Design the sequence.
């Protein structure tokens, strides 16, 4: 039986896998403690969004994680900045606004789940 999350992906309007990106962000976004003279220096950030699928015209950016944690909040704190950057990069590259962000944690790493950030 397919998990409902994968059924959503399979039945989506559009499904993109391993979407690569590169973009510049100010250095302070990665380290808010930087001195002002270097805080606005551009830093190149690159990454790969594991999956992006569309529901009702809205992109949902998915990142798979294998962390062994018992609290979703730990994952939210650990990865929300990463997915914010993925969403920003996708929106800039595609012209699409309002990306939702989800983490998916497969078995056996913890109870199989997906949740929005």
Sequence:
């Amino acid at each position: 039986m397919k998990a409902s999350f994968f059924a959503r992906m399979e039945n989506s309007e559009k499904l993109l896998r391993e979407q690569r990106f590169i973009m510049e962000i100010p250095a302070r976004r990665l380290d808010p403690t930087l001195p002002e003279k270097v805080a606005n220096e551009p830093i190149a950030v690159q990454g790969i969004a594991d999956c992006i699928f569309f529901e009702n015209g809205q992109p949902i950016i998915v990142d798979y994680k294998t962390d062994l944690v018992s609290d979703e909040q730990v994952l939210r704190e650990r990865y929300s900045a990463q997915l914010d950057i993925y969403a920003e990069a996708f929106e800039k590259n595609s012209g699409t606004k309002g990306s939702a962000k989800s983490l998916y944690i497969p078995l056996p790493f913890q109870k199989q789940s997906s949740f929005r950030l």
About this structure: Residues 72-94 form the longest helix (23 residues).
